[in-house]
Write a structure and sequence with these properties.
The chain is α/β, with parallel strands linked by helices. The protein has a single domain, classed as TIM Barrel (Alpha-Beta Barrel). Helices cover 42% and strands 17% of the residues. It contains eleven helices and ten strands. A six-stranded parallel β-sheet has the order 2-3-4-5-8-9. A two-stranded parallel ribbon has the order 1-10. The chain is globular. The N and C termini lie far apart (42 Å). Bound molecules: 3-hydroxy-3-methylglutaryl-coenzyme A and magnesium ion. The site of magnesium ion has 6 residues, from loops.
Length: 284
């Protein structure tokens, strides 16, 4: 059976690598992005303009954006926590940016040293500026099921933060199961609440695979109309500020799974496997 299109938003060069201990040379990061550019993605997150004191691995993001061979039709994305990050991303030539909020106060403090409200105060001028140059802004919500510091997170709280990001102009809201604690039931419950405020067509699932349930959670999200999923080649990654949050769900596995179900992803499995091998070899 052939179903409609499904998109994988590749986060390997950012979420996949940001937590690696080895000081990965810029040239290796560029080579990985160049390989991914051949696979058929529309969007690849490959940079993060955060404090190098907080996330040393993402220092040199400007050099990555400057060094990659840009493929036609691919948007190269970067994380930006504040105006400084936004300005740096714009100067470095990011095609789109992402702001990142948390559904829980504990993770917000540990990740960006700000409360949820303070984070939104930082985001507002970014959206204001981005609008004038037609820069697409994606919005992340972390800890959509569980926070490593505060425990379980209520679906209504996730919906509230997703609604704020969407209302301020984010074109898509990526829902992060940061610790991989989600189950098909808890993901569905959360999505039902979020769908009341953001249409399913503007949502993405960002499911870490720590609990080994990311694929089952993708299925639960598919059943509720989500058609965009974040994944990292080689299943690398995690957030340095979320203890126990190991790998992202692996792009090559998600692509296989979606194709088996009958969705069209437009991705070349062979190139994904090559990129996955490259990503794994980059680990410390
Ligand atoms: P702060 O210490 O509160 O900020 O950090 P500050 O304004 O006091 O600045 C401190 C220093 O950082 C200063 O430098 C600033 O210039 C510098 P100093 O005077 O000490 O030399 N600084 C910057 N440098 C470069 N780029 C910037 C920038 N801003 C300030 N943009 C801050 C606040 C937000 C900067 C910090 O907490 C930070 O960088 N956090 C980033 C955390 C992060 O990247 N986490 C991982 C990504 S989120 C994630 O992985 C989850 C996700 O995948 C979804 C999911 O799975 O849930 C998206
Ligand atoms: Mg993540």
């Amino acid at each position: 059976m052939t179903l409609g299109p499904c998109e994988i938003f590749e986060v390997g060069p950012r979420d996949g690598l940001q937590n690696e201990k080895r000081d990965i040379p810029v040239a290796e990061k560029i080579a990985l992005v160049n390989k991914l550019s051949e696979a058929g993605f529309s969007r690849i997150e490959c940079a993060s303009f955060v404090s190098p004191k907080w996330v040393p691995q993402m220092a040199g993001s400007d050099q990555v954006l400057a060094g990659i061979k840009r493929a036609e039709g691919v948007r190269y994305a970067a994380l930006t926590p504040n105006m400084r990050g936004y300005e740096d991303a714009r100067k470095a030539g990011a095609d789109e940016i992402a702001i990142f909020a948390s559904a829980s106060e504990g993770f917000s403090q540990k990740n960006i040293n700000a409360s949820i409200d303070e984070a939104f105060e930082r985001f507002a001028p970014i959206l204001e500026e981005a609008r004038h140059i037609d820069m697409p802004v994606r919005g992340y919500v972390s800890c959509v099921v569980e926070c490593p510091y505060d425990g379980p997170v209520a679906p209504e709280q996730v919906a509230k933060v997703a609604d704020r990001l969407f209302s301020m102009g984010c074109y898509e809201i990526s829902l992060g199961d940061t610790t991989g604690a989600g189950t098909p039931a808890s993901i569905a419950k959360m999505l039902l609440a979020v769908r009341n405020v953001v249409p399913a067509g503007r949502l993405a699932g960002h499911f870490h695979d720590t609990g080994g349930r990311a694929m089952a959670n993708i299925d639960a999200a598919l059943a509720l109309g989500v058609r965009v999923f974040d994944a990292a080649v080689g299943g690398l990654g995690g957030c340095p500020f979320a203890p126990g949050a190991e790998g992202n769900v692996a792009t090559e596995a998600v692509n296989k799974h979606l194709k088996t179900l009958g969705y069209k992803t437009g991705l070349n499995q062979e190139i994904l496997e090559e990129a996955a091998a490259m990503a794994r070899a980059m680990r410390g």
